[in-house]
Amino acid sequence: MTKLGFVALLCLWDASGQVLAQQSFQSEGQAFKVVTVTQGLEFPWCVAFLPDGRMLLTERPGRLRLIEADGRLHKQAIRGVPEVVARGQGGLFDVALHPDFAKNRWIYLSYSEPGEGGQGTALMRAKFVEGEGGARLEEQRVLFRMQPKSGTNHHFGGRIVFDRAGYVYLTLGDRGDMDRAQKPNDHAGSTIRLHDDGRVPVDNPFVKTEGAKPEKYTLGQRNIQGATLHPKTGAVWTHEHGPQGGDEVNVIRAGANYGWPVVTYGVNYVIGTKIGEGTSKPGMTQPLHYWTPSIAPSGMAFYEGDRFPKWRGNLFVGALKDQMLVRLQLDDEKVLKEERLLKNVVGRIRDVRSGPRGDLYLLIDDEAGRLLRIEPVGG
Fold it and tell me: Which residues make beta-bridge pairs with 289?
């Protein structure tokens, strides 16, 4: 327990007689505990907060769930979710609220959509409606469909983030075919930028490039499963999976080429041979930070709350393979320090969110998944 900064262990019993372990941990200058908010989730992927404190949560098999502010999970899933291909890494991914959700009730879903050639990541907008019979989605409209689709079942990307100007960004993976990430006429391995109604912005960097996909905002990215907005600069930050090593943190810039698979800090699985031309090349953007060996990052959030003052401005990243929460202390776009928390304690962290009260929320990726909340000790 020493590596975890363990402070205390208290065993409590719930109504069913199961032991719940509530541990207190010590980060640098911040003692915290982990509380279970909701359990019994099937491979949860994303959580988003409604204005009244309730939460929307996606389960990868294809369900959108409603959770009360006190953690009570509605038994009935929200109706009107699109058909998904829930194979391998595919399924229902992110849910995001429109910046003006309180007035227009629009939500956005990303998912692996079936179609000609296999499946591909899609983006849908729908209106969240509540009434007799429970919550449902209406006025569904698919705003984006990844082209071409393929029969592989991995590297879908799938994170959604809005910037301050109201543009919506959707992250994509290379679909397991690395060379696609360098092709302007292919959506794979890129970040997509759209108006909130699906229109292509006229200043997207590839709009005037003959044969290019106009929705593309970047290229050269392997599989982006973390995206968030910097609270001060308003820039979109992402992280992506490397192969064996080379997971990256990047700032998204118009027309930037992030190098995959020409340059990478990772190597081929098992055999460990070199990929591409090395770790850098003129015209290709270097990551702000990278991990070798890989941690398999998923989900990320900047912390700007008041409950953990010493964490303010830090970037938090979940890890699947290494089953931990990573805290990055920053100076502008430079990583000053990395701290690894909760390693092998809570499981595979799929999503990280900063909650409305100033707590951090974690989603645990499992067939019996959980929504957890990080709170100050004594708070």
Answer: 249
